[in-house]
Amino acid sequence: MKITVIGSGYVGLVTGTCLAEMGNQVCCLDVDPAKIAILRQGGIPIYEPGLDEMVKRNVAAGRLSFTTDVAESVAFGDIQFIAVGTPPDEDGSADLQYVLAAARNIAEHMDDYKVVVDKSTVPVGTADKVRDTIAATLARRGADIPFSVVSNPEFLKEGAAIEDFMKPDRVVVGAEDERAIDVMRRLYSPFQRNHDRILFMDVRSAELTKYAANAMLATRISFMNELANLAETLGADIELVRRGIGSDPRIGYHFLYPGAGYGGSCFPKDVKALVSIGKENGHPLRVLAAVEAANDAQKLRLVDKVVARFGEDLSGRRFTIWGLAFKPNTDDMREASSRVIIRELVRRGASVAAFDPVASHEASRVLEDVAGVDFAEDMMDALDGADALLIVTEWKQFRSPDFEQIRARLKAPVIIDGRNMYDPAWVRGLGFDYLAIGR
Ligand SMILES: NC(=O)c1ccc[n+]([C@@H]2O[C@H](COP(=O)([O-])OP(=O)(O)OC[C@H]3O[C@@H](n4cnc5c(N)ncnc54)[C@H](O)[C@@H]3O)[C@@H](O)[C@H]2O)c1
């Protein structure tokens, strides 16, 4: 099949590459010429395990190409995926300007039937707006060309995006005409050879499913974070409580990890957007509003612990941060807890030595305006002379570090662990003052 993917970011690039891997012809478009230049030179503008080789393989096979030329990209694909960003507007609602610009571009240049697929996470009713935008543009052109609009939200996780796309738990397709349903069924049939994973539904239900999924996951995290904070006061260990409830199959173990708050490009913005959708439609989503407020507070939980230990004024103090990306296996710094933590430490007068296996470059960009932050190349070098080590992202290489060396290089043996990586008794036995979340 011939496919165009509009927007070559985390979702667009993975979608395009995985579809090419299955033998389709794919053209990826982006408005950012720097991104397309990197891709054309054989590079990858993001960090995503396994993506690099898959892109190279499919480019070499002639199945995957990149362009900034809208006319060329529209002419290319019978299926046009829209995978552009949908950032929050000032009121928290999803900003649809990029989605609608992509729809206008398609309508401006199309000259035969297209299936236009919303892959971006968009509020209920967006497919109607995309349809109206395309119809209005075609009418202005005096062109009578058929098209279908489909909702196909994406559930991939950064850091495991290829695995998620190639072996999806489910593929949600909101489509209401037979021609589009047939195209989508053929497109996804290679991804479900062992059993049917496509859930066909109406467009509005598909749009809402994506927000509902992220909102549920965010709710589990905020719930556990609040319980963890209570457990600290009560003298209970949240990790034992987590196991105690996770073993109930009605609850399950996933997404019950307390920590330093959720971040990333999806949960914060999607929770905000769903809260805003509820408000607009006269159904305030009170649980979700609390999920967001709890998360905002949790992002500062590590700083609260620093302040409790070192005082309100942190002038002259230095702290090491291990882990900057919003989660392991990505360089994505969007809404990362580390950003809030570092800004607050610096605001209180401290300096920071930060280490992340892949996100330092992106972190230095988003923290450009913050003075007093150094980025170390080596996790141990970041410790020298610091008053405490703060762990913000649970990269594997932090799981079993050389504690002797940590103690020798820190000014004082203090670890404030925002991801509950270690056994408290063990680390305390090594002579550390060890503060975790909910333990
Ligand atoms: N990142 C994730 O893990 C994830 C997972 C599921 C769903 N989503 C959703 O997918 C969408 C995209 O997310 P992302 O993380 O890939 O964003 P991103 O910012 O990484 O990528 C978006 C890309 O679109 C490009 N773009 C913007 N307007 C364009 C236009 N008119 N034509 C061509 N290109 C254009 C941008 O330059 C950018 O490269 C969002 O709605 C997001 O909520 C993201």
From TrEMBL:
<feature type="binding site">
    <location>
        <position position="30"/>
    </location>
    <ligand>
        <name>NAD(+)</name>
    </ligand>
</feature>
<feature type="binding site">
    <location>
        <begin position="255"/>
        <end position="259"/>
    </location>
    <ligand>
        <name>substrate</name>
    </ligand>
</feature>
<dbReference type="InterPro" id="IPR017476">
    <property type="entry name" value="UDP-Glc/GDP-Man"/>
</dbReference>
<feature type="binding site">
    <location>
        <begin position="155"/>
        <end position="158"/>
    </location>
    <ligand>
        <name>substrate</name>
    </ligand>
</feature>
<dbReference type="Pfam" id="PF00984">
    <property type="entry name" value="UDPG_MGDP_dh"/>
</dbReference>
<feature type="binding site">
    <location>
        <position position="263"/>
    </location>
    <ligand>
        <name>substrate</name>
    </ligand>
</feature>
<feature type="domain" description="UDP-glucose/GDP-mannose dehydrogenase C-terminal">
    <location>
        <begin position="320"/>
        <end position="424"/>
    </location>
</feature>
<dbReference type="InterPro" id="IPR014026">
    <property type="entry name" value="UDP-Glc/GDP-Man_DH_dimer"/>
</dbReference>
<feature type="binding site">
    <location>
        <position position="327"/>
    </location>
    <ligand>
        <name>substrate</name>
    </ligand>
</feature>
<feature type="binding site">
    <location>
        <position position="158"/>
    </location>
    <ligand>
        <name>NAD(+)</name>
    </ligand>
</feature>
<dbReference type="InterPro" id="IPR008927">
    <property type="entry name" value="6-PGluconate_DH-like_C_sf"/>
</dbReference>
<comment type="similarity">
    <text>Belongs to the UDP-glucose/GDP-mannose dehydrogenase family.</text>
</comment>
<dbReference type="InterPro" id="IPR014027">
    <property type="entry name" value="UDP-Glc/GDP-Man_DH_C"/>
</dbReference>
<dbReference type="InterPro" id="IPR028357">
    <property type="entry name" value="UDPglc_DH_bac"/>
</dbReference>
<dbReference type="Pfam" id="PF03720">
    <property type="entry name" value="UDPG_MGDP_dh_C"/>
</dbReference>
<keyword id="KW-0560">Oxidoreductase</keyword>
<dbReference type="GO" id="GO:0003979">
    <property type="term" value="F:UDP-glucose 6-dehydrogenase activity"/>
</dbReference>
<dbReference type="InterPro" id="IPR036291">
    <property type="entry name" value="NAD(P)-bd_dom_sf"/>
</dbReference>
<dbReference type="InterPro" id="IPR001732">
    <property type="entry name" value="UDP-Glc/GDP-Man_DH_N"/>
</dbReference>
<comment type="function">
    <text>Catalyzes the conversion of UDP-glucose into UDP-glucuronate, one of the precursors of teichuronic acid.</text>
</comment>
<dbReference type="Pfam" id="PF03721">
    <property type="entry name" value="UDPG_MGDP_dh_N"/>
</dbReference>
<protein>
    <recommendedName>
        <fullName>UDP-glucose 6-dehydrogenase</fullName>
        <ecNumber>1.1.1.22</ecNumber>
    </recommendedName>
</protein>
<dbReference type="GO" id="GO:0051287">
    <property type="term" value="F:NAD binding"/>
</dbReference>
<dbReference type="GO" id="GO:0000271">
    <property type="term" value="P:polysaccharide biosynthetic process"/>
</dbReference>
<feature type="binding site">
    <location>
        <position position="269"/>
    </location>
    <ligand>
        <name>NAD(+)</name>
    </ligand>
</feature>
<feature type="active site" description="Nucleophile">
    <location>
        <position position="266"/>
    </location>
</feature>
<comment type="pathway">
    <text>Nucleotide-sugar biosynthesis; UDP-alpha-D-glucuronate biosynthesis; UDP-alpha-D-glucuronate from UDP-alpha-D-glucose: step 1/1.</text>
</comment>
<dbReference type="InterPro" id="IPR036220">
    <property type="entry name" value="UDP-Glc/GDP-Man_DH_C_sf"/>
</dbReference>
<feature type="binding site">
    <location>
        <position position="334"/>
    </location>
    <ligand>
        <name>NAD(+)</name>
    </ligand>
</feature>
<feature type="binding site">
    <location>
        <position position="210"/>
    </location>
    <ligand>
        <name>substrate</name>
    </ligand>
</feature>
<feature type="binding site">
    <location>
        <position position="86"/>
    </location>
    <ligand>
        <name>NAD(+)</name>
    </ligand>
</feature>
<feature type="binding site">
    <location>
        <position position="121"/>
    </location>
    <ligand>
        <name>NAD(+)</name>
    </ligand>
</feature>
<keyword id="KW-0520">NAD</keyword>
<feature type="binding site">
    <location>
        <position position="35"/>
    </location>
    <ligand>
        <name>NAD(+)</name>
    </ligand>
</feature>
